[in-house]
Each structure stands twice: as structure tokens, then as C-alpha cells.
Specification:
333 residues, mainly alpha, two-stranded antiparallel sheet, 14 helices, 57% helix, globular
Length: 333
């Protein structure tokens, strides 16, 4: 593994205790990876870590719908968010489902041969900018908890990875070799194809009432998981003053899903409003966060826990904006 953590020093998995250790245990059993940096980087904020794992597990792994279809949706989301680490990961996971030819078509930039697969992939890409094209669903409505939950989970995970993780999926970017991608996928195939029991992650949540689950989740375990992540991420607003909170929310209200221009026109200046700038970058272009942006905000009292919470707050504001648009679109059909 060549990944590193840009601005934090997460809890080493071997030193983890309590809920963090249990998340790592479930990751190993249900995801097939012992120390995925996408989750290790969140360990400084256990409430963010546990809710993120719960949302991904209860949608992608244990939620309704085919694993191949949900991996395609996650692949499309990761492309739309310009997160190459996650695109590579989902390519390997498509190999793990046994869909080797499909995975390699995507690597070549080709459209899936199966029309249903093509529609799901395009739906995932379009969720960054929800429009009528994201409806009707390209999957049975009863599978919405799995597909919508997966899309929203990776809109969040993409942003956290882009902001806080650097490096490639494998040493020397070995995932660029077809044989390596295929072998890595085959090593995960038994875990990926195993049926997971829904709800196993929910006892890891902190026990506080998470809030109302969204309508698309129905009575599935993904609903409480999403509500728990919303609650945990919104707590990061306390790291911004009232004026900065208003500014960030105003930006997100008018956001149309597009990536900001190279000049970041209109973004707050890091010298004047570093917290608002960092939160907005986390929401709209986390891959544009620089050392200077983090240094301008960070003070002695700002721990790794604080940084993960601020980035999570900005990231989830974008997720919440996407979720609201998807819900409105679904309600009209």
C-alpha cells in the first residue's frame, strides 16, 4: 500500500480499541480488506468512522440490488467526483464480482455492453448533478435503498479520500496492470460474493437517536446509517462561526453540481476565512485542498479530530444537497 495521510495521523489499526477496533474487524470480514485507508483516515473521529462504515455496509454490501450494479453506480459517482483512488478500487471490486470483461471495458473508457449496466453507470455519474435524467431509476424501486445509499456513501467517501489521502491504490500504481487488477479482485471474490446480514453495523453507532431516515431508505438499515452520518457530520458546523456557516450553506444552496474553475473564483480567501474555504473545498473540490489551506485554518487547539470533522461537514453538505435533489426528483415520479 502506497497511500499516506495528508494532514492527520490516524489511529494505527493494531492500536485501535472500542468501536474503532470493531469497525476494522467488520471491514476485514465483510469488505475483505484489513486496513483500507479510506476508513483508517476517519479513525480520528470515531463517530464519523462508524457512521460512514454503516452507510457503506448497509447499502453496498448488505443492501438490496446486485453487487455488480451497485459497484457500477459507485464507479460512476467516483468518476463524476474525479476520485481516481476510488475509481481504481471499484474496478478491482468489479473483478471480485466475476465481471472481468465489464471491469476492463470501463478501464478502456468503453460503454458496458449490457444496456442495464450502462444505464446504472450513467445514473451514478449524473447523481453529482441530479436532474430529471436521474429518474426514473435504472433499477427496481425496491432496490433504491441499496443503490441510492451506495451513491450517497461514495459521494461522501470520495470527498474524504480526495481531501485527506494521497498515493495510489497499490504500490507503484500496479493496479494499472490488468493481471494485477484481476488477481486483486479474485482475492476478494469470496468475501464480495458472500451474503451479508443487514443491520450488523448499527450497534456500532453511538446510541444517540440518529434522526429521521430518508424516504428512499424505506425500513432498511441504510436509513438509520444515513441519519447517523448526517448527525455526526453536521456537528462539524461548530468549528465555523455563524457568518461562515451561513456563507457555506449559501454556496451549497446555489451549487449546481459542477466542478469549480481553476481560479476558484468567488471562494473565500484563506487568510480571511480559512474555515469557510476549507469546508467549501471539501464539498465542491476536495482534490484542490492545499497545504496552505489547512495551515491557514489549523490552530494549536485544532486536533486531527477537528480536521476530520470540518472536512466531513463540508463533504456532507454536498451529499445532503445531492440527496435532497434526488428525493425531490423521486417524489415527482
Amino acid at each position: 500500500m502506497t497511500t499516506s495521510f495528508r494532514y492527520t495521523r490516524p489511529v494505527p489499526p493494531r492500536a485501535a480499541t472500542g468501536r474503532v477496533a470493531e469497525v476494522y474487524r467488520q471491514l476485514s470480514h465483510d469488505f475483505g480488506v484489513d486496513e483500507p485507508p479510506t476508513f483508517v483516515v476517519l479513525s480520528s473521529a470515531p463517530d464519523i468512522l462508524t457512521a460512514t462504515w454503516a452507510l457503506m455496509r448497509e447499502s453496498l454490501i448488505a443492501g438490496p440490488g446486485s453487487r455488480t450494479g451497485k459497484e457500477l453506480a459507485a464507479y460512476g459517482v467516483s468518476q463524476a467526483n474525479q476520485c481516481p483512488f476510488c475509481v481504481d478500487a471499484h474496478t478491482v471490486l468489479l473483478h471480485a464480482t466475476g465481471d472481468h470483461a465489464l471491469a476492463e471495458r470501463l478501464v478502456r473508457g468503453e460503454r458496458p455492453e449490457n444496456e442495464e449496466h450502462a444505464r446504472v453507470l450513467e445514473w451514478g455519474r449524473r447523481t453529482r448533478v441530479p436532474t430529471p435524467a436521474t429518474q426514473p431509476y435504472p433499477f427496481p424501486r425496491e432496490h433504491a435503498p441499496g443503490y441510492v445509499g451506495t451513491a450517497l456513501a461514495f459521494h461522501f467517501i470520495n470527498r474524504m479520500v480526495s481531501a485527506l489521502v494521497s498515493g495510489g491504490l497499490m504500490p507503484a500504481n500496479a493496479q494499472r496492470l490488468r493481471c494485477v487488477r484481476s488477481l486483486a479482485g479474485r482475492s476478494l471474490s469470496r468475501t464480495v460474493r458472500r451474503t451479508a446480514v443487514p443491520g450488523a453495523s448499527l450497534p456500532l453507532l453511538d446510541g444517540a437517536e440518529p434522526g429521521e431516515a430518508p424516504a428512499w431508505a424505506g425500513d432498511r438499515a441504510v436509513g438509520p446509517a444515513y441519519a447517523a452520518l448526517l448527525r455526526a457530520a453536521m456537528a462539524g458546523a461548530d468549528l465555523l462561526d455563524a457568518d461562515d456557516q451561513d456563507l457555506v450553506r449559501e454556496w451549497l444552496w446555489h451549487w449546481d453540481g459542477r466542478h469549480p474553475g481553476l481560479g476558484l473564483e468567488g471562494f473565500p480567501d484563506r487568510r480571511e476565512r480559512p474555515g469557510a474555504r476549507l469546508a467549501l473545498l471539501s464539498a465542491l473540490a476536495p482534490y484542490r485542498i492545499t497545504d496552505e489551506d489547512v495551515a491557514a485554518w489549523r490552530r494549536p487547539e485544532h486536533t486531527d479530530h477537528c480536521l476530520v470533522h470540518l472536512v466531513a461537514h463540508g463533504a456532507f453538505l454536498a451529499v445532503d444537497r445531492i440527496e435532497s435533489a434526488l428525493s425531490r426528483s423521486a417524489a415527482r415520479t
